[in-house]
Design goal:
Order of helices and strands of chain B: HHHHHHHHHHHHHHHH
CATH topology of the largest domain in chain A: D-Maltodextrin-Binding Protein, domain 2
Structural class of chain A: alpha/beta
Chains: A alpha/beta, B mainly alpha, C mainly alpha
Number of strands of chain B: 0
CATH architecture of the largest domain in chain A: 3-Layer(aba) Sandwich
Number of domains of chain A: 2
Distance between the termini of chain A: 72 Å
CATH class of the largest domain in chain A: Alpha Beta
Number of strands of chain A: 14
Oligomer: heterotrimer
Largest interface: B-C, 115 and 110 residues
Structural class of chain B: mainly alpha
CATH superfamily of the largest domain in chain A: Periplasmic binding protein-like II
Radius of gyration of chain B: 24 Å
Helix content of chain B: over 70%
Strand content of chain B: under 5%
Largest sheet of chain A: 5 strands, mixed
């Protein structure tokens, strides 16, 4: 027994030495002598053999996307003998870090750029912004880590707006965006409204009175995923867009001081946010996570669900009433309430140093192929960025007429000045009113928001 | 009043005498344990009931008991998350790294605890400071990359060969072993190596068992490091496989719950097994007598 | 040159044999320097640069600019100072309660009670489950409508939004979950420490007529000194650095952040402007490190002082 201990310890000590020694030599696949598991496969096929290629693709975790990619990869491998697609998945939260490490290790060829809130190239540094950091994608480009795709034929498959707004920097194209989402509208329970005798509201006043009528009938006006926090203010993005249809202009105005949160239309937004948070949302929304709120909505006793179009599958599967998706009527002028705001979601990029540039481009070309792309849209439910593709779902039909005037939302453009306080981003104000946080007076909150913002602006 | 305080505390400091007073105080013990246990059992039940619900039912009613309990989530987790292969990887990393760590830290802890050489206190302070250290994800990554160990098993294991908490626990425990034992062994002509391995190591079993459990849990449950260091799917530990249950805006919690319940079984078994060593009464007499 | 002190008694052989402990110690210490200390020193160096961490991107020395930005720029200082105060509050409450509760449970479970294995395992289970599942369990437990805690509150006629409500209240609940999750570790360390206390010490003291409280104070407490010191240090440092429960339980809620969360957010993007800013993230984590260092060093001093008193 004791000598067994002794020999075991000696073996382990030797293993320690081995491992340290293994590190010093250039043997990436070496293993300690007592390893019982299978050998790790080499991560890269030698570049000299053009026949056997392992294309490394990095995507973010999204179940419908995973479903699509599995089929797509199988088809791609079948069409390109000798090519193996190695798909890795990470969460959007980890994506930025993993892109950084894998590029450093030259361990990735094709990247699905969906980091953090997945926003394409919208948050560039504008001329009126000073002292802010360059966004991650710009740093990648300037470090020459992304391949220039400007002259690739497949870029032309996508509509100009998406290429321009989501994939272009300094006149060159570095990413093809394949997905739009919208979050500025609300789902409407047509059957419930009919029962209560209310039409779909097209102005703010109509919405307020519709809510009152619904509540008087013993039903609920709106619900949201309050338990997760962010669904509360995302529900007001449409409100913001209705009051400030020029969202890019709003960002500029806030930076230059022409627009403030505690006066005029800015204050109007905060005040309406309060009505939304305290009077329209049903009591107890903090009980629901984002998905639970959508399921809650399908029970049929809530009139509106202000959230993003990505919730449509839950409704399609569970709702037994007739529903549609309309822009959130935040303004009293119906003309202002006709836009869909949103963001560009995932985009595809290629690592500049990839040893398999041709295969990578062929991969993107296959992704951009209109037939494959239509399949992609059908499986994932994204709003399409190719003019030839259509979203055939119930949601797609509801929003199709609005796609022509689709705009990128405020929070995609917004860059906080350095030194701004934690209350500076007024677009999140709805989640700061009681019971979700400590504020109870709209003007006071608006003043605080403006003060926090100006603290950052003044610093530069 | 003092007598009441005495008797209340009495149960905690004495052994178990056979008096009626002792029995009443055991009731107090059970009361305390019971009321605390409610807050452990109840959330656990909620976790288990989550794992037995299909996703849509969970979304409708997260807090309630399942109406039609199903094991589908467990089966799904086993398949989707690639349990068998990744489980082997997890086991390999955990066992190897923990074993190497325990042995290497034993030989670091003992000289430090005994203050055998001039620098021992400095080294201990360095370990204590290691507790405070900020996460150094990217520099550590660059180190491993430059060593040529990126995306390899040895490289990944290397990350877990240190554990300041474990070191401190072992050092402190060794300090409670009297030096007279060292002296007696030295007088008997024992060599350092033999003494540490055959006498000290068994005596500090409780600390070793504690550190083994804590260290193993840390490696087993680690999510971020495999994401960065192991990009080859053959090398994935099981935590990497769980990503299939995450969504963009919300997760498949029943799936995660089922997966984690399966995942924790080895650790649970390890803990229950090692409890005997954590609470081994062997040391008491031999050491202080 | 005499490296080994006189108290090293083993090895009657030559000089090399006397150095055996040193040789056996080297692998462990070298690993530590390589894997932990080295990268952390690199982090400190990074903090004085504008490094992005990207391959091929230029790195410039910018002195204390990162620190100035994190600590003093605009209203960042107000938020960061508030976060620091909150962190201290969090740490103090968690340490005191977790320590005491862990000690009580360990004492109770050190007896020969029936079912003690069950209870020990039960209290340790959260440690095995990990932060994400701890968050899930308590999110369910604290559901404002329909959750068990809400029901219990209802019996007392109270109502609350728990984690989704006022930042100060959400903060309090995170404290409770943090204690709940980690008291098992405290308990286990105390339990293992109690194994070194021999029964004879108690017998001798009882024969001398000591009361039970005196037994605890004069026998148990001093004999537990190493475990007490370990738990004290671990509790304080762990709670100062903790942020993951905040992340899973309440997310980014203004008015509730602690410093660890801020550091994580700056480094890995949890705020408005995600960017590769290794230098800045490093500076933020060094700030947290210094706070932990100051408090941890003080705690360590207390620990050494107690050691000298009792051992």
């Amino acid at each position: 027994m004791k000598s067994k201990w002794f020999s075991l310890v000696s073996i382990l000590l030797v293993a320690i030495m081995l491992i340290s020694a293994c590190g010093a030599t250039e043997e990436p696949a070496a293993e300690p002598t007592e390893a019982p598991a299978a050998e790790a496969e080499p991560t890269e096929a030698p570049a000299a053999e053009a026949e056997e290629v392992t294309l490394r693709v990095l995507v973010h975790q999204n179940p419908p996307l995973a479903e699509y990619m599995e089929q797509f990869n199988a088809d791609f491998e079948a069409a390109n003998p000798g090519v193996t697609v190695d798909l890795s998945t990470v969460t959007p939260g980890d994506m930025a870090t993993v892109i950084q490490t894998r590029l450093s290790a030259t361990d990735v060829d094709v990247i699905d750029y969906c980091a953090g809130s997945c926003s394409g190239f919208s948050n560039a540094v504008q001329p009126y912004m000073s002292g802010v950091d360059k966004p991650t994608w710009q740093q990648l480009i300037e470090a020459n880590l992304l391949m220039d795709l400007t002259d690739e034929p497949f870029v032309q498959n996508f509509d100009e707006a998406s290429i321009r707004d989501a994939g272009t920097f300094d006149g060159r194209v570095y990413a093809i965006n394949v997905a739009r989402v919208s979050y500025s509208g609300m789902f409407v329970n047509n059957d419930l409204l009919a029962d209560v005798g209310v039409a779909i509201p097209t102005t703010w006043s109509e919405l307020v009175s519709a809510c009152e009528t619904v509540v008087d009938s013993g039903l609920q006006c709106m619900t949201a995923g309050g338990g997760d926090g962010w669904p509360i203010f995302v529900g007001t993005y449409g409100l913001l867009g209705a009051v400030f249809p020029d969202q890019e202009g709003l960002v500029e105005g806030l930076w230059t001081g022409d627009t403030t949160w505690n006066e005029g239309k800015g204050l109007e937004v905060i005040e309406k946010d309060q009505v939304f948070a305290q009077e329209m949302l049903e009591p107890g929304v903090t009980s629901f996570s984002h998905d639970e709120a959508a399921v809650r909505y399908t029970a049929g006793d809530v009139a509106f669900l202000p959230t993003g179009v990505w919730q449509a599958p839950i409704l399609e599967e569970n709702a037994e009433f007739d529903w549609t998706y309309v822009p959130f009527p935040g303004s009293d002028d119906p003309a202002d309430n006709q836009y869909l705001f949103g963001k560009y979601d995932m985009s595809w990029m290629i690592a500049a140093d990839s040893p398999h540039a041709d295969v990578a481009k062929a991969y993107l070309a296959a992704l951009a192929d209109p037939d494959n792309y239509q399949e992609f849209v059908d499986t994932t439910g994204y709003l399409p960025t190719q003019p030839t593709a259509t979203l055939n779902s119930k949601l797609g039909q509801a929003v199709a007429p609005l796609l022509d005037t689709y705009q990128v939302g405020f929070e995609q453009y917004w860059v906080s000045p350095k030194g701004a306080g934690q209350w500076a981003n007024g677009s999140q104000a709805a989640s700061w009113f009681a019971p979700f946080n400590e504020w109870t007076d709209a003007k006071e909150l608006a003043d605080q928001i403006q003060a926090d913002l100006e603290a950052g602006l003044a610093g530069e | 009043m003092t007598t009441k305080l005495n008797s209340f505390i009495g149960v905690f400091t004495g052994g178990d005498s056979a008096s009626a007073r002792s029995r009443r105080l055991k009731v107090v013990s059970y009361l305390i344990l019971g009321s605390l246990a409610v807050f452990y059992i109840w959330p656990l039940i909620m976790l288990i009931s989550t794992s037995l619900k299909p996703l849509t039912e969970y979304l409708k009613d997260p807090a309630g008991l399942p109406t039609a309990p199903t094991l589908a989530n467990f089966a799904e987790a086993w398949e989707l998350a690639n349990f068998p292969q990744y489980l082997l990887n997890s086991a390999f990393y955990t066992v190897t790294a923990t074993a190497i760590f325990i042995v290497s830290s034993l030989f670091v802890a003992f000289p430090i605890a005994r203050d055998y050489f001039k620098g021992s206190n400095i080294i201990l302070t360095l370990y204590v400071i290691a507790l405070f250290l900020p996460p150094a994800l990217i520099p550590q990554f660059q180190l491993i990359l430059n060593l040529g160990l990126y995306n390899t098993r040895p490289g990944y294991i290397l990350l877990f060969l240190i554990n300041p908490i474990g070191m401190i626990i072992i050092v402190n425990y060794i300090k409670s072993i009297p030096r007279e034992l060292d002296e007696a062994a030295a007088v008997d002509g024992a060599s350092y190596l033999r003494y540490v391995l055959r006498i000290i190591f068994p005596l500090i079993r409780p600390a070793i068992a504690t550190v083994t459990v804590l260290h193993a849990i840390g490696i087993w449950n680690e999510v971020i490091l495999p994401t960065i260091y192991l990009t080859n799917a053959d090398l994935y530990p099981i935590t990497r496989g769980l990503i299939v249950f995450q969504g963009v805006y919300g997760n498949n919690w029943p799936g995660i719950a089922a997966a984690v319940l399966m995942l924790m079984l080895p650790l649970l078994i390890l803990f229950m097994f090692l409890q005997r060593y954590i609470i081994s009464g062997l040391t008491a007499g031999a050491v202080k007598g | 040159m005499r490296i080994m002190r006189k108290n090293y008694l083993f090895g009657s052989g030559g000089r090399w044999q006397r150095l055996t402990p040193l040789f056996l110690l080297l692998p462990g210490v070298l690993l530590y320097f390589l894997i932990a200390l080295g990268p952390s020193i690199a982090t400190s160096v990074y903090s004085f640069t504008d490094a992005s961490g990207l391959k091929g991107a230029p790195v410039n020395w910018i002195g204390f600019d990162n620190y100035k930005e994190f600590l003093f720029q605009g209203l960042a200082s107000r938020d960061n100072i508030a976060a620091t105060l909150r962190t201290l509050q969090f740490s103090a409450l968690v340490t005191v309660i977790q320590f005491t509760l862990g000690l009580i449970i360990a004492i109770i479970l050190n007896q020969n009670l029936r079912g003690r294995t069950f209870f020990r395992t039960l209290f340790f289970i959260p440690v095995i489950l990990g932060v994400v599942i701890q968050g899930l369990m308590w999110r369910l437990f604290l559901l404002p409508r329909g959750g068990p805690m809400a029901t219990m509150f209802g019996w007392l006629g109270l109502q609350s939004e728990f984690l989704g409500g006022q930042p100060s209240e959400a903060f309090m609940w995170v404290i409770i979950v943090q204690i709940w999750a980690n008291v098992g570790i405290t308990m286990v360390i105390f339990l293992s420490g109690m194994q070194t206390i021999s029964e004879e010490l108690y017998e001798a003291a009882r024969i001398d007529g000591a009361s039970n409280w005196q037994l605890f104070r004069n026998v148990t407490w001093p004999q537990l000194t190493p475990a007490i010191n370990t738990n004290f240090l671990l509790n304080i440092v762990g709670s100062l650095q903790a942020w993951q429960l905040f992340y899973v339980l309440i997310g980014w809620k203004p008015g509730s952040q602690v410093l660890g969360y801020l550091v994580f957010a700056e480094g890995f993007g949890g705020t408005d402007n995600p960017a590769f800013r290794q230098g800045f993230a490093a500076a933020a984590s060094i700030v947290l490190f210094f706070m932990v260092l100051i408090i941890g060093a003080a705690a360590n001093k207390v620990v050494s002082w107690r050691e000298q008193r009792y051992m």
